[in-house]
Structure formats: C-alpha cells, structure tokens
Design a protein that fits this description.
heterotetramer, A: mainly beta, Glycoprotein, Type 4 Pilin, 2 domains, 16 strands, B: alpha+beta, Rossmann fold, Dna Ligase, domain 1, five-stranded parallel β-sheet, 23% strand
C-alpha cells in the first residue's frame, strides 16, 4: 500500500506491507519493521524494530497535532491540497491581514488609500499584556481598514485589506 | 492570621494557595470572571469573584479586593507577583483597613519603587550603584549637562517606567541631543512623565540578583544568588542558581551588599536585590523587588528553604529560625518559564483551549503550573503557563534533566516557548555558562531558526494514526474538551457563573 | 560503559532508565510479554522481550537476560531491586560474561545473603549483633541447648528464608520444645532446609537503616538513616528520614557502625545496613541489602545526592567526589508506597485497568511512578504502583505536604493503599513519631476501620453528574481505555507483540 | 425535583430547585446554593456557595466511581436495588465464594462434604507475589469445589460453593 503523509508541510511517500504479525514500511529507500501498534485514549504506542515509540494526537481549531519525541507536529491529511506551513499564520499573499491572536487594538497606523510596504506595521494589538505589531504581508495600497483603536478582535478577524502592487 | 485572600491568578496563585494550606490557614481566591474555571480557584478553600476579565476591573481593582477580603473574613492578603504586588497604595490601604499585607511596609515599597529614591538610599548605605545622574529631569539641557559628567557610552532611562519605553543607548555622542529629546517625548507619552535619568552603559552585563528574607525582629539573611541574564523582550526566560560568574569570595561580597541594601531600605519579608554585573566582575545595585519573584523555586531547591511559607510566617510575626551561617547552597537548579507564545514568530502571544497536556515529572523535577487539560488560555493576562524547574547535583546534571523534562512536556492547542528553551539549553555558549543579557539576541539564528527536519518515526506514527486507523482512530478533539461541554445543562449553569 | 540493560519493571525500571539517560548512556528495557505497554518500555531507548509474564520465565531467567544483553550490545546491567538484584549467581554469571553488574561483587552478595555468614562477619568487625546463636541447626536438641544460653524472650528464625515462615516468638519457655519442632518442620517444608537460629527478642523495636555508598577506590560514606518501622505483612509501607528516635550523637555512632559494616563486608556500590533499634537506644545489625532500596528517594531529598546515578558512576570506576564531612541532612522527607491493594480487606492485591489517574505534583513532591491512565495492572508482579515522596523543612511540614498530596492522588479502576497512608499520617501516635514495627497492627482499628461518612458535597456532585447530566454526561469509561481499543487494526497488531 | 442518590451504600434524598442562574439543593433539612456547573473531559466543576468543587468520574468493571476531595466513592444508580457496599466483595451470603482477584491457586483446604465455619480459609490464591487466604462467608457444608492447585483464576470466578447451615 502506498501512502502520502504530510507533516509540517513536508510530504513523504510511504510504502506499507503487512507481514504476518508486523508491518514493513519503506521510506526513502529504507525499510522499517513496525509492530505491536496500539491506540488508546489518544495515545499511539508501537515499535520500530527494538524501539518503543509513543505519539499523542489532538485536534483543535489550529488543526491536527501530533506530539512525539519531544516535538509537536502539524499533520495534514493526504487529501488536503492546502498545506499549512505551520501555525499562527496571519497574513495571506493576497493582502488580507488577519489577527493572529485575540486582543485589543491599541494603534492603527494606516488609512484607506495609504501606500504600504511589506513588513511595515499596520496595526498594534495588545494581548496577554504585550504589544504586538502586525505587519503588511505585501507592498500595496490599503483598500480597507476594518478595525479601530479600542476594538476587541479575535483570532482570524480581518484587520486590514491591501491591494497588492502588480 | 486567620484567613488569607489571594487576589492573583495562574501558577503563583496556585503556589501561594498551597503554602497557606500547608500552614493550615484557610485561603480564598479572589478571581476575575475569566478565571472561574482556573486551577487556583479550584484549589482554594473559597473563591470570590472580584470583577470582569480586564485587570483594571478585577486584579487591579483595590476597592473590589478590599471588599472581597471583608466579605470572606480575610485578615491577610498575599499579592503574589505582578498586579498589585508592588503597589504601595494597595499596601497602604490594607494597612489602614487593618488587614495584613504579606510583604514589606508600604513606605518601603514606595521608596524602592522609585529608581531615583532607591538609588539614593543605596548610595548613602555604601552599596555600589551604576554611575549616572541620581536625579532625573525632563529638561533637555539639564539632561545634556548630566550626561557630560559621565565618560563613555550611557543609557537614557525613564524614571517612571520600564519595558524599554523612553530608553536609549548612547554609544556615540554626536546625536545626543536628538536622542534625549526622543526619550523625553516617549516617556511623557507612555507614562505621563518625561523624567529621564542617565546611567553608565555596562558592557556585556549579566543580571544577577540575591534573595533576601528579613523578619520583623531585625534578622536579615540572603539566600544566595540567581542568574537571570537570559531574557527576551526585557523579560526573563530562564534562570539558574548558582551563577557561573561568581566564585565564593564574590558571592560573599555581593550577599553582604544585598543584606546591607535590605537593611538600608528598612526591609521586611521576602525581597530581591537585583545587581548589574559587569565584565570585570564589578557589580551595581539595579533595583529591589519588593515581592516574591517568579524564579523563587530555584532558590528553594538549592537552599531547602520554603520562601512563600516564610513570607506568611514573617507576616504573622515569626522569627527566622536559621542564621546566615546555617544556609548552604547545594547543587544546581534551573527554571524555564513556559510562555504561551510563538517564540519563533517574534514571541507573539498564543491563546486557546489546551487540547492535550502531558506534564514533566520525576526526580529533581518541579513544575509550578497554573493550567490543566481542557482549560482555556485567555488573552487578558500574562502569557506564563508554568515554571519548569530542574535540580541536579551540578549544572551539567541540571541541564540534562531539564532537557529530558522539556522533551516530555506536551502542550497542544496553543503555541509555547518549550522549543525555545530546548534550543537555549543545547546552545554551546549557554552550556559554557556565558550568559549575558544579550544572549538570545546574539544567538537568535540558532535559537529561533527553523526546526530540524521531520524524523521518519513521525511519518510512521502519522501513517498509523491517519491511514490505518481510519475512522476508528480515537483522536482527542476540542469538541469534547470545549466549554460549554456536551452536557445539556451547562449553558444554563454558566449563567451568572462569574458573579 | 556503553549501554545498560535493565531487566526489571515498574517504577524502579523507570527510575534507572532516567538515570542512564541523564548520564547519556543508552539504555535497554528487558521486559516480559505482560509489560509490552509498560511505561519503562516506552521510556527506554530500546526494548527487548525476555519471555512470558511469569517471573521465572522472564525477570528471573538469567539465560534470557544474558542473551538479551548480548543481542542488544549491552556491557552493563542494572538489576533494580527485587527479582535478581540480590542473586549472587546472576552477578557471578555477568562477571564471567564480562558484563558489568551495577552492584557489589558476587561474593559480597553471597556473604550478605546468608544471615549466619553476615552476622559472623559483623561480629568479628565489632558491630553489635542481636544476641543469639550464630550457627543454626536443624536438630531440636541443639537448638534447645542454644536457646538456654540466652535470657528472656527469644525468636526462632529460619536460616534459609523470610516472610514469617519458620518464625516463632517464644515469650514463655514452658512449651519451647514443641515450638522448636514446629519451626524446624515449617522451615523444612517452606525452604527445603530446616535450619533454625535463635535471636534475642527486642521489645518495641524500630527498623532503622543507613544508606551506604562505597566506590572502588576505598572510599565509603554513609548518607544517614531511614526510619522504616511502619510495616504491614513484614513489608515497609511508609519510610521517613531523619528518624524521630535518633539524636546527633546516636546518629553519628550508628553511621560509623554502618560504614564499618560495609568495610568489613568488602562492600562496593550502593547498599543499606539495616539495624534493629530497641527501646533503650540499643541497636543491632540485622542485615545488609546489597542493592538500591525502594525508599532511596527520601535520602536523595535530604542529602541532595543522586544515589542511582552514583550506582552507575561507581560501577564505571568513578571516585566519590565528596567526603563524609561534606554530607549534611537537610529537612525531612517521607515516602508512601502506593500499593495496588485493598488495604481495608486484609491488603488483598487488586488489579485491572487504570481508568482514571491524577498524580500529585507541586513544590517538594516527587512521585516515582510506573503507571499511566489506560494501563493495566497485571497479577504477575509486586503490587507497587508508585512511591510518593514529600519533602519539607521539618517533619511537620513534610507530613502536611504528604497529606495534601495524597488528597490529590486519584486512581480509579483498582483499589490502592492511598487511604491507608492518609490514616497513618493523621494518627496521633505517628505524628508523635512513636513508630515501632508493630505500629499498623497496634492501631489497626483506627487505620483500617470504616471510612468517615459521605459528605454532602459528594451527593451534590453525584446528583449533578447522574441526574442532571443524563445521557449527556461524558463519563470516562473503560471501553475507551481498554486494550484492544476501538481502533480496527489493533487486534492484528497485537499478534506476536510480546516477542 | 426529588432525587435519590446512593453513594457507598448510603442513600440520600435531595431536593433540587432551579433558581435563575443557580440551583438550590435541600439535603437533610439544610440548603445549598449550587452554581456554575461545567462538565468537561470527565471532570465536573461547580460551586457550593463560595467553594469551587471538582469531581472526576470513571466507569470500569468495578462500577461507577467518583473522586472528590481526596476520596473515591462508588456511585450506584437510583434504579439499582442491589447496592454494593464497597468494592472487591468476594463472598455472598448464599455461600458462593468468588475469587476477589486474578491469580494462581496454591492451596485448596477443603473437599466436598467438609463442614466449614465462617472466616475459615478455604482456598489460598497467589497474586502479585502475595498469598491470600480466601475465607468461607458462612458456616455450612462444602457443596462443590471448582478449583485445584495450579489453576489460574480470574476476578469473579466461583471457587467454592457452600451450603449454608440453616
């Protein structure tokens, strides 16, 4: 069986074959003997050769996560074409600036019609007692400002829309 | 002392509540509406809501807190750190109300809260202070005049505040005047007070502080140092004790200075004397923190003394039952502050429901935590989730233990600084003990760069869960953890829950 | 030392594996089929199955263990406690195979494993031993003759075994002969050896032991005492240090005796000298345990020394880097052994799936655990689940901390000794420090009696969950935790899993 | 609303009334203000007056359990007439002796037709390396012995049946 797995934006082909009491995985030309898998209470345990592995899974608003060997990974399902490259992404290449966090708007540095450069701070949000500058993702012109000082915003709220420079 | 009110939250509220319970003193959590499901509320003997989520209306609302103390019959208040912990008006108000403030007397808080006043007191007591203008000014000419009296690079700093506002480093004096003008303007707009003072710039400084305990019977001891040089955004990230920069002789000298500083301040209760420590082993008084520090657990590990319990015991009039010569530093302890933040993305805060939580444990590990699985990290407060502390016979052992503990720490649902800590601990410069306040900035490429490639085990695990498990895979998901829960009555029950 | 094999299980395997990792030595768990999902297997760098669940076929199977060490390239073995830890043939076999046994040399294990031989060695070295016949006999007349040489009450004990088999207390000599006959017969049928020796009966004895570390360079130190008098079924239940029975003078004398005992035995590595301690402060050598003790964490807390790491470091030839005079006892530590048992029902073992687990944590708390939620406690092995340890500045603080920790410890799915511990800790006689080996028996009505009445909060909670929640209540249930899980492929995956 | 709750064999009547944002419980003539209940991930949190309470629930082969305030309780549902008086009960008043644990039979002290007294050890089971004597629950005569030395038994297996003395 051929599988495609995407973790943290990296895609890999896995070839899996059932061999009696274990599975044989082929990845990048190397073979792995995988046995004794068990999934219980959100925890997956299995052996790769002589090594016992444990992975924990969760699903939340940020997508699917897996914890293993001291790291947390984002798991994208095979069908999903739109691979997330990480977390907290707040700006799109199309010029939409979304809030990466809930918080209070404490400054809006631009108005409609202003020209902006990429990485220029357009809005400042206070969250968890820290001030965070939100930057323009692209060079362009401010099309719309959707927030004002004092507004409470939430994760994903569109703060500013920018018409990218051609 | 019959009952203690704790108008604070998170891990420090949990710590203080534990200390009260261990001393058999009933304890009341004063919480904001956002914290009704918080761990400290669950651990307290009673809990009383003091207002809406916004700190100004709850944890900083002196009237509401005093009212809560009255209503629940509390005769003492432990402020924790942050919020009102170093607010002299709060301490004074409690003194007037006849409620014990577990901390120093309000005039001491007031004096130590002023950079200028505290430096004047220390100078008089013979404690080394950073060369500079003791008195600040908001007059550009005055400031220029003061600046000319000090050789070499200088810092301009705002008298009224911190966090880098109104601060300017002057390496080259050619544009001094415009820098002074900027600093005054920035301080005025940030703090409503443009007063600026001048400080000599110390090259490659370390931040080293000494823990103090002072009882009301005249006994003052220090409990050795904490090295707190690893910082980001002017906030400590990792602390350790002992400091790699001190030998026994220097430690003794600085400890003595710290005790003298506390005595000069008329100090009582637990406090911390912060020093700037320079390249040539010179040290200068920086400020005195008149409260329990975030990083107190590393001192507790190496001295065996319970600082929070002693805060309470001192406040109820007990005498310290040990002397300076009884205190011994043993082993090495490190603390990592686990923040809810995306460290790699300019440390932006991260909030949301904790969908999965596995906390480190084992010999020599202490995790002072304020969170639990299913709890929601809100955007209203400081992003500190927990403080992970590792103890070892020596620095190498403590580092290794901390690395393994961090590897076993799983928090899903929000971003955290766990990975940042792992990278700091495996950094060669850190391992050599060469930690200056510029450490993170100087090594940001290694510490904040992109992660290692994804190991093949991760692909195998994901394949097992995603493909082989199919619909049968029991993934933990937020729906099951979320509030309101599937429980039909929860919605109704939540009504008025915060009042 | 390149790689360590750990042919043990449960909390001690976890402890040893952690120590290896902290020393950067790869570590292999040698596990039985019943333990394929155990915590220690998950924590090890590698894991290899050594046989079926029955201990004789796995954890006691010397050939299988040696084979596992060979196959995985291990050049050292840490035996933990129990199983083969004090088996001189195992140590000897490893010596012959050129594999380092992390423990004392096999002849020392052999000598200390024999009550008669060890007493002879200690007597020669001037260590006080309990008056009695050094040489045992299975001849009734010989035993009678030896008995007549000692005044007052005596104990008859089997040379070959323990656990109360072949043991008789003789308070009144009128029926001495029939008691001797019984003891010989019982010992013969239990151990295949009827040899009986005689010991003076000590009134109200305490069990006090001293921790020893001896390196291969001639340095031997003691790390003070542990008081282990609280026992049930001749097994320790709760240990603490320091002992309430010792003053500094006595502690020094006993410590010296313990070091002399270790020296007389030609000891190396970590070991424990057990003393019987009488009403009049007299103490007698009881036996020497040639391995790490279950209760070692309380010594680690009060001395700051990592005993398990030192076992490994001594085995690889390192010298102790401290001397006797560097060691200081600081504070007080208590350990509660959490057993899977129904303490109130004659301590019968309890096994099954752990459906819910909340482990204690916080300042001064260490929980050496071998379990996790969803794991199944099997009937094949010792019922110890975890060791909960509390540290405090003094005994009162440690007791209070332990009480709060026990209150926060939740284990569902099996019965445990948590409640037993809570009752011991709140018992007045215990609080006064009057702990003799008869403590639990003497206070069984208070300690094992029926629980307090159910508080009204419990009825309210149950009402909320059972009635108001209705079908919407999300109860954790065993089905979701059980192995095999709802995952369709698990059944197949489990095939051959133990091999 | 009237509720009957049975915990550890103790039954209590609870009167519950909804009062806007909270509930009023009446128990044994006393009133309790119960508010802000929430159930999540097997944990119930609520307030009684000013006190925040937490209870954890689980369900296993031994029945329903609740953990609260440092104690574990058995919860019996209202409809169940047969209240369990605790856990690990292994003998019935009718003379059936069940195994209270999985383990190995290492001694069988009785044969069919023997007379036994209550509390007399009839079987010894080794489990977790400890020997456990299993006692007769009643005076009577051994009707049947269902186990032999060397047998592996499981929780609840009937070991011996006793005809109780009248």
């Amino acid at each position: 069986m051929e599988l495609t797995i995407c973790i943290d934006g990296v895609e890999k082909q896995l070839d899996v074959e059932k061999k009696g009491d274990h599975y044989r995985f082929s990845i990048d030309g190397k073979e792995y003997r995988v046995s004794s898998g068990s999934l219980s209470n959100g925890a997956l345990t299995f052996f790769i050769g002589n090594r016992s592995c444990v992975a924990y899974f969760s699903e939340g608003s940020g997508g699917r996560r897996m914890a293993m060997g001291g790291r947390t990974y984002s798991i994208e399902s095979g069908e999903n074409e739109n691979h997330r490259g990480g977390t907290g992404a707040s700006a799109h290449a199309d010029g939409t600036v979304e809030s990466p966090m809930p918080g209070n708007i404490i400054a809006v540095n631009v108005s409609e019609g202003d020209a902006v450069r990429a990485n220029q701070a357009v809005v400042v949000i206070e969250s968890m007692k820290m001030q965070n500058e939100i930057a323009a993702p692209v060079d362009g012109e401010i099309k719309k400002v959707n927030c004002a000082v004092g507004d409470q915003v939430n994760f994903g709220d569109v703060l500013v829309e920018i018409e990218p420079e051609k | 002392m019959n009952k203690v009110l704790v108008p604070n939250r998170g891990e420090i509220a949990v710590r203080v509540i534990r200390a009260c319970k261990e001393l058999d003193i009933p304890v009341v959590a004063a919480y904001s509406e956002a914290d009704i499901r918080s761990l400290h509320v669950q651990l307290a003997d009673e809990a009383v809501c003091i207002g809406p989520p916004s700190p100004l209306e709850s944890y900083l609302n002196i009237d509401a807190i005093v009212r809560a103390a009255r209503e629940t019959g509390c005769d003492a208040v432990h402020p924790g750190y942050g919020f009102l912990a170093e607010n002299d008006r709060f301490a004074e108000r409690l003194e007037k109300e006849g409620i014990t403030f577990i901390g120093p007397p309000s005039p001491v808080i007031r004096a130590m809260g002023s950079k200028i006043q505290s430096r004047a007191i220390m100078k008089k007591a013979g404690i080394p202070i950073i060369p500079g203008s003791l008195e600040g000014s908001d007059d550009v000419d005055e400031i220029m005049k003061a600046a000319r009296k000090i050789d070499g690079p200088i810092f301009l700093k705002a008298s009224a505040g911190g966090g880098g506002k109104g601060m300017r480093l002057v390496l080259d004096r050619t544009n001094l005047e415009s820098l002074v003008r900027e600093a005054v303007g920035e301080a005025r707009s940030a703090f409503g007070d443009g007063t600026i003072y001048i400080e000599k710039y110390i090259e490659s400084p370390r931040h080293i502080e000494f823990q103090i305990l002072a009882d009301s019977h005249g006994s003052i001891v220090h409990l050795f140092e904490r090295e707190c040089s690893v910082q980001r955004r002017h906030q400590k990230v990792l602390e350790e004790t002992p400091s790699t920069a001190l030998d026994d002789k220097l430690r003794k000298r600085m400890g003595k200075a710290a005790v003298s500083a506390a005595r000069a301040a008329g100090y009582r209760n637990a406090g911390t004397v912060e020093f700037m420590f320079g390249k040539n082993q010179e040290f200068y008084f920086l400020e005195m923190n008149t409260r329990i520090q975030v990083e107190h657990p590393i001192t507790e590990f190496t001295t065996g003394v319970d600082l929070v319990k002693w805060q309470i015991r001192i406040a109820r009039g007990e005498e310290l039952d040990f002397r300076q010569e009884d205190l011994v530093q043993r082993g090495h302890a490190i603390e990592c502050r686990i923040y809810a933040e995306d460290s790699a993305k300019n440390f932006i805060p991260s909030c949301g429901v904790i969908t999965l939580l596995k906390e480190p444990w084992g010999p020599g590990i202490r995790n002072d935590s304020g969170i639990y699985e299913g709890w929601e990290v809100s955007p209203y407060y400081d992003p500190i989730l927990s403080k992970l502390v590792a103890y070892g016979e020596n620095r190498e052992a403590a580092i290794k233990r901390m690395q393994l503990a961090l590897d076993s720490y799983v928090i899903h649902g929000i971003e955290t600084s766990i990975d940042l800590h792992k990278r700091i601990l495996s950094n060669d410069t850190f391992i050599k003990g060469e930690t200056y306040t510029s450490f993170i900035e100087a090594h940001q490429d290694e510490i904040l760069g992109s992660p290692d490639s994804v190991p093949v085990e991760a692909f195998i695990a994901a394949a097992l869960a995603e493909e082989l498990g199919g619909a049968g895979v029991t993934l933990r998901n937020e729906t099951a953890l979320e509030r309101p829960t599937p429980w039909h009555y929860v919605g109704k029950w939540e009504i008025g829950g915060g009042r």
